[in-house]
Amino acid sequence: MGGGTNKPVLFVDGKRLDGRDIDELRPIKIKASVLHRANGSCYLEWGENKIMAAVFGPRECIPRHRVDPYSAVINCRYRMSPFASLDEHSKAGPSRRSTELSKVIREVFENVVIGSKYPKTAIDISMEVLQADGGTRCAAITAASIALADAGIPMKDLVCAVAVGKIDGKLAIDFSKIEDNYGNADIPIAVSSRNKEILLLQMDGLMTKDEMSQAMDMAINASDKIHALQVEALKEVYTRKAQDKPDEQVS
Ligand code: ADP
After folding, report:
1. Nearest CA to ligand 1 atom 11
2. Cβ(56)–Cβ(37) below 8 Å
3. How far apart are CA 73 and CA 87, in angstroms?
4. Which of 19, 40, 82, 206 is the most buried (most CB within 10 A)?
5. Cα–Cα distance for residue pair 174/180, rounded to 1 Å
6. For residues 42 and 53, what is the distance between their CA atoms, to the nearest angstrom?
7. What is the pLDDT along the chain (251 residues), one digit of tens a residue?
8. Which domains does the chain have, with CATH numbers?
9. pTM, two decimal places
10. What is the CA(136)–ligand 1 centre distance, in A?
11. Which residue, 117, 217, 119, is CA-closest to 164?
């Protein structure tokens, strides 16, 4: 954020480098139920980001000392593949960043999954970033929410996430990596789709109070668009499964 002495131009003729307006999301494609071994899954492309999310559970909680007698334990693993990004990052293995992101994403889902329905169990959520171009935590949260719904895990709401912030002094939404690196402020936000409860809010950079409130409005507007795509992706699973197994539909 704000880094580098050779800062590139981020706006050309009033448009962002990829031709977007300030409040325009990158194209998002969501496909639910793509992995047959997982209880729920989702493949999501968001601009150049490619994310696979998978959910297992509710299943036995191991190690046993982590068992919660009143609720399911949520485990989250966000991982960046070694080939996800440029050479500068291409080191395999866990990092401080992925440990932090796994933790904050776990906290998002602890607040929406109705864990009390499955006491003494564990629900495991894995998010693999196959390709990264800024905003992977938001894309991973959006995908994981679909994977949980696909697994039939009861939740208070779906979760949508998007980054908002400031680039070249202008408020904007959904930063690509270059905007993330050279912008003035980046705020990833996750909200529950219907109630718009804030489930994650991180901030890198500086904004005024007014800018912050406008940015929040932009994020809430965008969350409605993302939510519509999530619902569409979940409905498509039923259409696909009905077409795959026409005989089982009878009765
Ligand atoms: P986010 O992806 O949520 O925006 P960051 O702001 O930490 O998270 O990173 C911005 C972008 O920088 C990422 O989307 C990715 O393109 C790149 N990046 C950061 N850290 C890594 C990493 N460890 N491996 C690969 N790419 C990374």
Report:
1. 134
2. no
3. 36
4. 40
5. 9
6. 5
7. 655 567 888 998 889 999 999 999 999 999 999 999 999 999 999 999 999 999 999 999 999 999 999 999 999 999 999 899 875 666 666 899 999 999 999 999 999 999 999 999 999 999 999 999 999 999 999 999 999 999 999 999 999 999 999 999 999 999 999 999 999 999 999 999 999 999 999 999 999 999 999 999 999 999 999 999 999 999 999 999 888 875 555 44
8. 20-241 (3.30.230.70)
9. 0.94
10. 7
11. 217
For residue 216, give every residue at least 6 positions away whose Cβ sits within 8 Å of its Cβ, in sequence order, or none. 164, 189
Q: Supply the residue whose CA is at minimum distance from atom 9 of ligand 1.
A: 134
Long-range contacts of residues 42-46, Cβ cutoff 8 Å, at least 24 apart: 42/143, 42/144, 42/146, 42/147, 42/150, 42/233, 43/143, 44/139, 44/142, 44/143, 44/146, 46/135, 46/138, 46/139, 46/142
Most informative mutation of 180, 181, 184, 204 for ligand 1 (most atoms within 8 A of CB): 180
Residue-level pLDDT at 147: 98
Cα–Cα distance for residue pair 58/99, rounded to 1 Å: 23
Tell me the chain's radius of gyration from C-alpha atoms.
Answer: 19
- Tokens of residue 71, six digits: 């609720």
- Residue ranges around ligand 1 (CB below 6 Å): 80, 84-85, 89, 95, 97, 132-137, 177, 180, 188
